[in-house]
Amino acid sequence: MIDVCLLGTGGMMPLPYRYLTSLMTRIEGHQLLIDCGEGTQIAAKKAGWSTYPVDVICFTHYHADHISGLPGFLLSMGNADRTEPLTLIGPKGLERVVSALRVIAPELPFEIRFRELTEKRETIDLGFVTLEAFRVNHNITCYGYSLVLRRAGKFDADRAKELGLPVQFWGRLQKGETVEYEGAVYTSDMVMGAERRGIKLTYCTDTRPSSGVSAAAAGADLFICEGMYGEREKDKKAREYKHMTMYDAAKLAKDAGAGELWLTHYSPSMNRPGDYIDAVQEIFPQAVCGKDGMSTTLRFRD
Amino acid sequence: MIDVCLLGTGGMMPLPYRYLTSLMTRIEGHQLLIDCGEGTQIAAKKAGWSTYPVDVICFTHYHADHISGLPGFLLSMGNADRTEPLTLIGPKGLERVVSALRVIAPELPFEIRFRELTEKRETIDLGFVTLEAFRVNHNITCYGYSLVLRRAGKFDADRAKELGLPVQFWGRLQKGETVEYEGAVYTSDMVMGAERRGIKLTYCTDTRPSSGVSAAAAGADLFICEGMYGEREKDKKAREYKHMTMYDAAKLAKDAGAGELWLTHYSPSMNRPGDYIDAVQEIFPQAVCGKDGMSTTLRFRD
Questions:
Q1: Under 8 Å CB-to-CB from A290, ≥6 apart: which residues?
Q2: In this structure, what DSSP letter does residue A176 have?
Q3: Do the Cβ atoms of A13 and B79 come within 8 Å?
Q4: Are B258 and B223 a contacting pair, CB within 8 Å?
Q5: For A182-194, what is each residue's pLDDT tens digit?
Q6: Cβ separation A39–B97 shorter than 8 A
Q7: Which residues pair with A277 in a beta bridge?
Q8: CA gap B227, B59 in Å, rounded
């Protein structure tokens, strides 16, 4: 399962009661954060999450509203005496940008590992989850991310018994290994059903809509997506600054066949995103307006 | 008069409901900010202050909790289409630190002017107020600041009449100028009384207590001072990390003959600063625990 908390829903600048857009997730005891603007550490504490166990921080891009909170976040981790290495993932330039910002956080008790993205699509196995990065269309290089938890097929105990394989070997087959026993070879697929539906969470902000985005979000249980403007007349502004309206996001969610859509990254000029949700739901009924601290747990279905 | 707002009262890291220590002031339409940690722009908005009209930002030192909010603050000013130059004042290294942080705020529609402090005490005439910077004793170079509004003596109209000086020259004498009229020379002191008591506001955090600090705060109407710890057993920690307890601050306020003391820059470990205020007031009765958004207006006395 994936615990999900949308720490903030603002774009451009943090406001009282609307922190900058950032997503905290927990998967098997590991925490992964996407984006870290000014105030993200406050929003995390407010929502009841610790900064300490974060193993990975992904950045969509290096506009200040997505990374300005990093120095403080790192220092908070350091003040909690964290010693485990921290992995940072983001577009090219990551190490240069982070090194510059660390002018005010030069000494940390843990190692920082950098993973810079260079391809249009990259899949990274983080051990506890698979990260799929996909490049989007903003005015600087920007990526969206999917977190994918795969789920093996069901183990068929009756079939294993029929094969005459003693029970102590079953666990290895369940893990996908091959077993040799009394001269015979047993492969995983002999006792395991087809791979079951897993969990997919997609996060995407700061882009124009495109078929690439909906393809990357295809089948996501939860799609968290920028809906910078709700006012129809702001469509031009969205195009100009390479952002998306709420309606763009709804169309993407529909094309992606997403389970649910949470809108986020609201313009500071939009006081009440909820004013536009009826029109958004006409395009994609499972759309909701994200709110600071909104949480859910995505579970395997059965 | 000086409008004063203590935007935050936290030290080390921002917390929900406790922003980092920062002081906003307004003097004759100009705003001057001291320190700008992560979240300061949010705290300002929450307290009803705009970032736009800030003409000067002073930094005590470059630990992250005093400057990490600068890139976002600059961008908010830029987004509001500010074009007037902004003056930054702080210890040596100011331009280097700010330039590094501006990796995420490279383009701004206004000029930034730097004034780096190098002496133990420096007095800077900002036009709308006199700034007195004084070096304190922290583990890196750190300054405290006083804002001083001087007040001329009373104009003696009867004396001006006695001297036979026509009324159209009075204004120049009130401004301290010298006037020649019909062969006679009239100096300001001939019609102006002794300089009256002005307004003084002193801000000091991140230091060990010293006679230098109380001398710098001498006669301050309001002394805003670090009281990092209230627990008696934290005195050792305060010494080790070069901070002050609430009792240190109270002694300084007493020695300075300050009008009032606002405590601030609380350790994140101290949940309820108010628990210690009775003991603090035994040392200095006009001590209060600063709270986020606490405001006052300092006026000339008559």
A1: A6, A9, A224, A262, A263, A264
A2: T
A3: yes
A4: yes
A5: 888 999 989 999 8
A6: no
A7: none
A8: 18
Whole-number pLDDT of residue A302: 72
- pLDDT at residue B116, as a whole number: 98
For B80-109, the pLDDT digits (tens) are 999 999 999 999 999 999 999 999 999 999
Mean pLDDT of chain B: 96
Indicate the residue of A42, A62, A67 with minimum beta-carbon distance to B14: A42
In angstroms, what separates the C-alpha of A41 from chain B's closest C-alpha? 8
Taking the mean position of all CA atoms in its chain, how far away is CA A259?
15
Chain A residue numbers with beta carbons less than 8 Å from the beta carbon of B37 are 72
CB contact at 8 A, B161 and B172 = no
Give me the count of residues in chain A.
302
Taking only Cα atoms into account, the Rg of chain A, rounded to an integer number of angstroms, comes to 21
**Cβ-contact A142, A90 below 8 angstroms:** no
Instruction: Give the containing element (helix H, strand E) for A213.
Output: helix A211-216
Candidates B12, B64, B76; nearest CB to A104: B64
Average pLDDT over residues B272-293: 98
SS3 content of chain A, % helix, strand, coil (to 5): 30, 30, 40
Q: Say how far apart CA A247 and CA B241 lie, in whole Å.
A: 53
Instruction: Give the domains, in start order, of chain A with CATH numbers.
Output: 2-152+195-298 (3.60.15.10), 153-194 (no CATH)
- What is the tens place of the pLDDT at every residue in A218-234? 999 999 999 999 999 99
Contact assignment for A69 to B13 by CB distance below 8 Å: no
Of B46, B72, B79, the CB nearest to A68: B72
DSSP state letters, B65-119 = GGTTTHHHHHHHHHHTT--S-EEEEEETTHHHHHHHHGGG----SS-EEEEEE-S
Element (H, E) at B101: helix B94-101
